[in-house]
Amino acid sequence: MRRAKCELIGDEILSDTLSQGIRLYVYPKPGLKARHTAVSVGCGSLDTVCPPPGEAHHGIPHFLEHRLFEKLEGDITARFTALGADVDAQTSFTNTAYSFECVDHFEESLRLLLELVFKPYFTEAGLVRERQIIQHEIRLFEDNLEWVSFHTALKALYGQHPLAVDMAGTVESVAQIDLRSLEGFYKTYYRPEHIAIFLCGELDPLACCHLIQEIVDDLLPRAGPERGEIAVRQRPVPAPSTVSVSLPVSRPRLCMAFHDDEQGLRGPSLLKREICLEMAFDILFGPSSEFFARHYEAGHIQAESFGWETYAEIAFCFSMIGGDVDDPPGMMEAIHGEFNRARDRRLIERGYSRAHRKILGQLIYRFDEGEACLASMQSTVNREAEPFDYFSAHAQVSIADVASCLDSCLKEPNCGTAIVWPGDGGTTQQACTD
Amino acid sequence: MSLDVGGDFQPHSIAKGVRLHLRSTQIFKTVRVDLFVHSLLQPLNNTRLALVARLLERGTRDLPDLRRLNQFVDDLYGAIFAAEVDQFGDRQVVHLTLELPDARFLPEGDDLLAPGLEFLRDVLRYPFEENAGFPPTVLAGEKHALEQHIASHFDDRMVLVLHRCIREMCPGEPYSLCVLGDPGDFPRIGAADLFDFHHRTLAQNPIDIYITGAVASERLTGIVSDLFSWDRQALAPLPPRPGGMALASSEPKVVMESIAGMHQGKLAMGFRTTVGLADEAYPALLLLDFLLGGDAHSRLYRTVRERLGLCYHVGSFLEPLCKLMFVEAGVELQDYSRFLSQVRNQIHSICDTGPQQEELDRARALAIRRLWSMPDDREGMVGFSYQRALAGATGSRALVEENLGRVTIRQVQDVAQGLVLDTVYFLHGQRSGQQA
Questions:
Q1: Interface predicted TM-score (ipTM) of this complex, two decimals
Q2: Is the CB of A251 less than 8 angstroms away from the CB of B148?
Q3: Which of A139, B9, B218, B268 has its CA 20 to 30 A from that of A234?
């Protein structure tokens, strides 16, 4: 197995590739009580096209995630629970992950997880029930302010691109998912070369590797089935606008999304870009900034809701900032004004050391508790990096790197804006004027 | 350096009513400090404490404004600091947290713990003051911010529904008060009297400090004793635990309201039980909650969600200090009656024949596993320990596991029979005149 060691935190991760092409990462953490395991499949809500004949179904990866829990014997969750294991699954823009956490019965739980992923069992009756459940899920999130503002901001920036569509799809798109499209999607994407397995806890990496190889040998046929062609992910093209919607909330919510011109990065350079964007936001708008103090003390922003996040993937890269504000246009202007003010680099230079040190502390947190370690492994490997590349990427970030974000991302022409106004429904959209 | 003591905290008395709970362990790369100042939820005081928590983040005598305080925290390699109010049953606690990278993992090996603890002491004991009070402009700002925060808090309709259900269910009881306070109290709260209130609380109320990390016990108890010993008065007496059942009538109260623009209804059902966290029958109640709606393979999940497709979100949970249980769900108006029937049917079934052995064993396996993996989750471990201390529940995690292992079908049946549906609260988005 390959070893990667991080000298700063003293941990190491061992990795290998199984004979079928599945990648394996094991993070030994002596002293932890629980073992955490995740199987990550390289398809997410951006992947909507099912072969043949190339129909698009928004929400199919998420639908499939739900349906894989049903087996001939019933919901596989019951068998995990009987072993004392908590099982979960999640669909993101780019990946679908199935995970469990256990203390005892690790081998049995591992076999169950691999059965969950590699032994699909689809029925018409199950599909009909699932449509109802997911339609309830979609409606649940239609009332969720964070969710609505997030997706509306992506619509404001990217128009009809799949990034702007709810990961669960729409009520209409879910109604059209049938057995044929589900099975076709599964066969296309759930292939060994698209799959990585991650483990963290008090584990023997070599023993885990042998065990998983043995289980996968039993579950997967020797010759791969006929494979469908994977549709290339559509690169998002910014078409900035301002979109207003209303929800029965107490105050307006502003959400500004910024498209990064530096698209298509991968591996350590992508991690470095993510760190640069996070540092730029922290220097200009973070708790230590003059902007935050001024606007908080004036009552313009609320500590509980004001914040930002960067979504840096191979298929896309954007950042968002916003929060609850009484005057969304005024705050938009203030944020753009601060980016403009920062272009002479003095603000970045003054804040660089503190922000750089702060990010190092935050990276240490990401490799602390077991669940965080599991998430960090997935986040890096799914972007063609190694988990500890974060630390070397961090060390390489310079003032110039952080400042470059202002030229290629954090500027008005790259910004789409969502405003959620207090009200009882409705959407308006206007194009951004130069 | 102390060895890991199996996840339990070592108690040390620091001063009258001030206790340190120490968990020395090498498995984490950060050190976590949780400091709790404990009060009963009371009218007016709940608002005072909510404001105090916000003001403690606004400056100290050495870091006299928001920006300087935040810069100090950021300079500790991005330490995580927060001052909040939390609720445990009918108790309100001012909760300070500080999380710091361990010196072993920092490039220059800086010890952040001693300055971090001194900072926490200053936040608590020496908040920035003007003329023996909180700065009036800062207090005015925080009143405005708190009012906004309360409104935003209830924008989450499931949170709003639960709060309204509790308010209907427990009028006049401390539990019905909002832990974030009531803006209607603001005119009665001034800068000087709030400052005095805060210092009285520090002098009288129990304070518990939990520290988890690779820390040397002797050194740490010395530092904490130096920093957190001050003049303490006789502890303010806290009333005894609630006695349990307090129903106004034998029929549940049903309240339905609407908000225009909501896409999906939200439902809360409030039940009274006779069993609290410190009671002998609590393990049976805990397993009842798990198998009814507390985990992903519970009865409610399997029936109302997976089999009948009535909802996506459904679950149950306990309020163990006040002897209450709740069921919550996102349900469409047209499915409301059917959903209620299903919940009642499931509870009646458990009352009549008890759970099946297999489902009881499943719930037990999950509960025990979560108990044993708890040391991996520092925040969860602190919350578990503190809640048990508030409830007066004694016994180690090993004893809790043993008790869970002894729960029988009959015992679960008995606690189910002790459940009484008190209140149903349903919020939907339909206009008035439309019926369920």
A1: 0.93
A2: yes
A3: A139
